[in-house]
Amino acid sequence: MKISHKYLASFALFIAAIAFLLTNFTYTPLALAQDTPSYYREKAIHNPDGIGKYYMNREIARVMGHQAMMWLERTSRQTEEKPETTVARLDLKPDDVVADIGAGTGYFSFRMADQVPQGKVYAVDIQPEMLEAIAFLKAENNITNVETVLGAEDQPNLPPESIDLALMVDAYHEFAYPREMMEGIVKALKPGARVVLLEYRKENPMIMIKPLHKMTQKQVKKELQAVGLEWQGTKEFLPEQHFLVFSKPV
User: Fold this and answer.
1) Contact, 69 vs 15, CB < 8 A?
2) Contact between residue 192 and residue 247 where contact means Cβ atoms under 8 Å apart
3) Which end of the chain is more exposed for a tag (fewer CB within 10 A), N or C?
4) What is the pLDDT of residues 149-178, one digit of tens each?
5) Can you list the positions of beta strands (E) in the chain?
6) What is the C-alpha separation between 176 and 68, in angstroms, rounded?
7) Diameter over CA atoms, the chain
């Protein structure tokens, strides 16, 4: 999908219109469940960038709020995340059904939609404001194969065995319920379908991203293999992020 100057101007006006109503830049999640499963731990004293909840010895990061959505549309993403190359590496078929989990403003949703003209992209996010931005851009650009889905903190709310690929770009580390969310994603995958994660490389201390917003390959593999996904490989073509590929057993 080519982004026009009209698109950028329209999106800027949309952001400006809602900016007056926004006061902080951190999404505040719903109250955590009363009965926390045994695979989570909680600490009162913790990293201020985290929520004080730990999964497999990893503190879960705070979600970036919708108030900072323009960060998701920054021009530097072209060189940082190489979106066209990244989407090409997904090897999508024209009739694939894909899910962009933690879609934000649809930065990758719309680019994937261009590659699946006979398919569909589910743009999933837990913040209604993000989905409103996607709906605005979808209407503005007459895009018909992107469907917004309001997810829950512990479920993507996708039909069972409906998707060929789930993409998560800098999102997984912010899931408040990673085990439950991934179990829901696995149910939504067709047999043999893939999961792709982009995560900043925690192995490299020189990458100037807050530590809780980075993950090591080892940690990602451990957490995704816990829900039955099989690691297929990691492509290291991005300047700062892992491109990790997993699949659901047939």
Assistant:
1) yes
2) yes
3) C
4) 999 999 999 999 999 999 999 999 999 999
5) 40-42, 50-55, 58-61, 97-101, 120-125, 146-150, 163-169, 189-201, 214-215, 230-235, 241-247
6) 19
7) 51
Number of domains in the chain: 1
Q: Which of 202, 195, 199 lies closest to 171 in space, CA to CA?
A: 199
Using CA atoms, how far apart are residues 213 and 194, in angstroms rounded to an integer?
Answer: 23
Looking up tokens 């073509």, which residue turns up?
237
Q: Please give the residue range of the domain that contains residue 80.
A: 5-247
Burial 8-18 (b: 16+ CB within 10 A, else e): eebbeebbeee
> CA–CA separation, 156 vs 141, rounded Å?
26
Tokens 């960060």 -> residue: 71
The pLDDT tens digits for 48-104 are: 999 999 999 999 999 988 887 888 888 989 998 999 999 999 999 999 999 999 999
Six token digits for residue 236: 């290291």
Q: What is d(CA 73, CA 51) in angstroms, rounded to the nearest whole number?
A: 25
Residue 32 is part of a domain; what is its CATH number? 3.40.50.150
